[in-house]
From TrEMBL:
Domain SprT-like span(s) in chain numbering: 16-165
Family stated for the protein in its record: Belongs to the SprT family.
Predominant localisation class: cytoplasm
Organism of this sequence: Xenorhabdus szentirmaii DSM 16338
NCBIfam families (alphabetical): PRK04860.1
Pfam families named in the record: SprT-like (PF10263)
Needed co-factor(s): Zn(2+)
Subcellular location: Cytoplasm
Name under which the protein is recorded: Protein SprT
Length: 166
C-alpha cells in the first residue's frame, strides 16, 4: 500500500481542533480527560476510527488531504466522542445515546453516524456480477471469496446465484 503523507500544518490543525474539543469536554463534564494519540493509518473508505483500548484516533490521510477543514470539523469530534463516551460511560453502543449526548450537548455538533465525503479515490476495485434480473457490485474481498469457493452470493430479488459479468 502506498503511504500518503499529511503536511505538518494540516497535522497541526488536526491537533488544535482535537485539543479544543477535548477542552470543551473537560469543561462541560468537569473531568480531565487524557489527550488521545492521533495516527494517520486509517485505510479504505472509513474517514476515522477510535481505538478505545489504545486511546487513539486513526484518520484516513487521503480523505483528510482531499477534504481538509470539513474533515477536521466533522471527523475529529465524531471520533473523540467515541473515546469520551467510553471513558465516561464504559462499554456502550457505538452511536448510542451516550455518544449522541457528547456530540450534541458537549460539542454542539450534529450526531451523524457516517461521513458524506467522496470515496472515489479510496474505493477498492469493484467486480461486476450478474443474475437474471440485475448487475451487482462486489468488492475485492467478496470476489476473492467467490474465487476460493468459500462463499456463493445469490440475488435477493430473484434468488439466482451471482456469476461474474464478463
Amino acid at each position: 500500500m502506498k503511504s500518503t503523507s499529511v503536511s505538518p500544518s494540516l497535522q497541526q490543525n488536526v491537533m488544535d481542533t482535537m485539543r479544543q474539543k477535548l477542552a470543551q469536554a473537560n469543561h462541560f463534564l468537569q473531568k480531565d480527560f487524557p489527550e488521545p494519540s492521533i495516527s494517520y493509518r486509517q485505510r479504505g473508505t472509513i474517514a476515522g476510527s477510535a481505538r478505545l483500548q489504545d486511546w487513539e484516533i486513526r484518520l484516513n490521510p487521503i480523505l483528510l488531504n482531499e477534504n481538509k477543514q470539513a474533515f477536521i470539523d466533522q471527523v475529529i469530534p465524531h471520533e473523540l466522542a467515541h473515546l469520551l463516551a467510553y471513558y465516561q460511560f464504559g462499554k456502550v453502543a457505538p452511536h448510542g445515546k451516550e455518544w449522541r449526548f457528547i456530540m450534541e450537548n458537549v460539542f454542539n455538533a450534529p450526531a451523524e453516524r457516517t461521513h458524506q465525503f467522496s470515496v472515489h479515490s479510496v474505493r477498492s476495485q469493484i467486480f461486476t456480477y450478474c443474475c437474471c434480473c440485475q448487475k451487482h457490485e462486489l468488492t475485492v474481498r467478496q470476489h476473492n471469496k467467490v474465487l476460493k469457493g468459500s462463499v456463493c452470493y445469490v440475488c435477493r430479488q430473484c434468488g439466482e446465484k451471482l456469476k461474474i459479468d464478463k
